[in-house]
Amino acid sequence: MTAEPLLSLRGLTVDFRLPQGVMRAVDRVSFDLAPGEVLGIVGESGSGKSQILFSLMGLLASNGTVGGQAVFQGQDLLSLRPKELDRVRGTSLSMIFQDPMTSLNPYMRVGDQLAEGLILHKGLSRSAARAEAVAMLDRVRIPDAAARARRYPHEFSGGMRQRVMIAMALLVRPALLLADEPTTALDVTIQAQVLDLMAELAREIGTAIILVTHDLGVVARLCDRVVVLYGGRIMEQGPAEALFEAPAHPYARGLLQATPRLDEALTPRLGTIPGTPRSGGAMLPGCPFEPRCPLRLPVCAQVQPALTARGGTLAACHLEAER
Amino acid sequence: MTLLEARALDVGYPVAGAGLFSRPVLLPIVHGVSLALHDGQTLGIVGESGCGKSTLGRALLRLVAPTGGQVLWQGQDMAGFSAGQLRRMRAGMQIIFQDPVAALDPRLTLGQIVSRPLAVFAPELTRADRAARAVEALARVGLSADFAGRYPHELSGGQAQRVGIARALIGGPKLLICDEPVSALDVSIQAQVINLLMDLQDSMGLALVFISHNLAVVRHISHQVMVMCLGRVVEVAPRNAFYARPLHPYSRALTAAVPEPDPRRERGRIGQSLPGELPSVLNPPKGCVFASRCPEAQPRCHAERPELRDFGGRQAACHFVGE
Prior knowledge:
Oligomer: heterodimer
Mean pLDDT of chain B: 93
Radius of gyration of chain A: 21 Å
Shape of chain B: globular
Strand order of the largest sheet of chain B: 6-7-8-3-9-10-12-11
Number of strands of chain B: 12
CATH architecture of chain A: 3-Layer(aba) Sandwich
Helix content of chain A: 25-40%
Strand content of chain A: 15-25%
């Protein structure tokens, strides 16, 4: 990457203290994100994909600890004091969640919730902030924005609430938007609208996005680059085109083959990955996917493979390296 | 043979009236749905939230009583069934649910859960017979005999759904109603469960009603596809004909909105989403249910509701199909 990265993760690790011991949710994850780039993190439940976002926002549960570095615009997010992190979160780092209803304050008018951030972080007057909030609601295509701004969240449909969340997140024109399964709760035609809106606004404002999802189709629509996560580790990463066309890691291949799609001939059976996704537990000495991998070698249970270049992507797999 | 038939089925729920003391009013959810399902066939029912697909599934089992029309089980109208006949009918017709863990009683062992229906369907069996049948049913869904002594909290989501299927199979059903059975599961597990349902259909001659919002999953498993919108059927067609060329503009909008894991193709679909939202069930339109969002809508569509019409082996409810 030629330009200075906007965000640079180095060895990001998230541990949770549980009664049965320490559970590693994210294990030494490193990647760079360029300004304006859209990165997708895909994985199944327990892969640690959401915990990466939570750790960046300082939103980990109280039994969680974080290690490594996350340098964002020149400062390490993980070592900031709460006050400093607050300022970053209010001005250049925003997040949207899967369930917009639980992220909006049910007692506060939507317009006031949007204006709050501008008053606190940008020092705008109440009336100026309200005007900007209404303009932003209009921008995310909330019909009749001025009247809608005076309504409460329960008066909005699910798709409109997510658009309100996007409006709120982008109001401060952040350099980076973290999106945790933003369209998972939405119907497919509404999902298409929200993805369109995210793509359009990100381009317009120049915001970079990290999109966490389990849906490979959503990643394909929105993302420039993809990180495939399993058991807290990166299995494969690379440009979206290269990764979807020629996935090098057996897990990435398995995920793609297990996804039924409309644009290909029907097969009598879907491809499957045996076993169930790994969730938590002690750290394995080898590859976390080894117990489910159809192509595993003896070495896979003992030594963790490093990310190495294959074709157009980077993959962490002993098998491909031997070829 | 026609196993299950619905004729002009209406289903509604009582909701609170406008005033504090006014009598409950009937909110219609499903309007005039007719369908016929044959032995060993799969009918896929797709639609977005609030389209009535789950309510229809429950009414087919008579878990909710229809407010109009008929449901015929093997040619007999269920409305006239005695309690005993309903019980016998339900041994032949079972349901599995979206949330597989919530569908299992946490205080019972899996053996008890799976064999429970036998207390109703085959009360003459001894305890040992029932336990043996439970182990058989578990084996059929790919779970070993030692699962019979375990409890639901020990299961992953995919395993819990297998237990739900085993319980549904134990009475020797001819028909399984599957209400979003894989929506809560990870992609790799979803593929396992779909393959299992298709294998069971082959080996036991099961008919399936497969209710889902996921068009790609429905394509994979169905022989016949039915699209619902705001409680009405807008299109019914054989699977291949439907996906090759959906006739109703709503069907086309749905299939076009599904993101595929193909970045080159998806890039071109950004900005193509259909604006607007579906009308509320509380305030249904007078004309076509899709008219407010339909890119091809004419004045007639807002004024007059289109009936389902035949188009050579398939049906669609649109004034302008075939013109």
